[in-house]
Design a protein that fits this description.
The chain contains 11 helices and 5 strands; from the N terminus they run αβαβααβααβαααβαα. The chain is an alpha/beta fold. Strands 2-3-1-4-5 form a 5-stranded parallel β-sheet, with helices on both faces.
């Protein structure tokens, strides 16, 4: 059993704390493959992965934290969020007209609106950690503009990856600089001791995967989950069990 799997096994057995891993990044930054590789070898019974796309109408009628709150990992589990509540301070900042869908008057939105959202996010994550149950690690997979277009072209050339390409991938590249600024400000405003951000160079997938895996293992090592002590008389239970073979 690898070190990561061993720590996960102990976390699941201890059943008193949880670990939440948040992944953000530009299109083709490698979030899906990162999550697949990092969780390989873990007990799937103790891992919950959630990927978030465009909000549904029901999502839009509630707090943008709602669907992420609903999917927080229970005690003993590792939760993985592929995209997250940070879409609401990145995508909506690049495309503020999307805020109309939540009923906002976009003409009234100014810098204070985004600062209030950053404050809300900090409070949300601080609440999770202050409860003493959930540790939060956030990873931004930083892919270069040159590497991104290389990967997007590969999606078009590879029949097994064609399905991953969307026309919006072309459109969103036109906003590359805006996205970099939005991410930079969001990360700077919300990287705290309670929920730190780790910016991972992602052009080299092997390096990125090793870096993330090491950071997660380091965090779990510091959490040091322990197997709970048995609440029954083990010898008595063993004798009772062995007696069943005589019946």
């Amino acid at each position: 059993m690898g070190r990561f799997a061993e720590l996960q096994h102990r976390l699941f057995a201890e059943h008193s704390r949880a670990l939440l891993l948040v992944f953000q990044g530009m299109d083709a930054s490698g979030k899906d493959s990162m999550i697949r590789h990092v969780t390989t070898g873990l007990n799937p019974a103790g891992v919950r992965v959630h990927a978030y796309g465009v909000p549904t109408q029901d999502d839009l009628e509630q707090s943008y934290f709602q669907r992420h709150w609903r999917d927080l990992p229970a005690q003993g589990y590792i939760g993985v969020h592929n995209r997250s509540h940070y879409e609401e301070v990145v995508v909506t900042r690049v495309h503020p007209t999307l805020l109309k869908l939540r009923g906002f008057d976009i003409e009234a939105i100014d810098e204070s609106f985004w600062q209030e959202r950053f404050e809300d996010i900090r409070s949300f994550e601080q609440h999770l950690t202050r409860q003493g149950h959930t540790t939060v690690l956030k990873f931004f997979l930083h892919v270069s503009k040159e590497e991104q277009i290389k990967r997007l072209v590969e999606r078009l050339d590879d029949p097994e990856k064609n399905w991953k390409f969307e026309i919006s991938d072309i459109r969103e590249r036109l906003y590359w600089d805006d996205y970099q600024i939005a991410y930079q400000e969001a990360i700077s405003a919300t990287s705290t001791s309670d929920a730190p951000w780790w910016v991972i160079p992602a052009d080299q997938k092997r390096f990125a995967r090793l870096a993330v895996a090491e950071l997660v293992v380091d965090q779990l090592t510091r959490m040091n989950p322990q197997f709970p002590e048995a609440e029954l008389d083990l010898e008595k239970a063993k004798r009772a069990l062995l007696r069943t073979s005589d019946t």
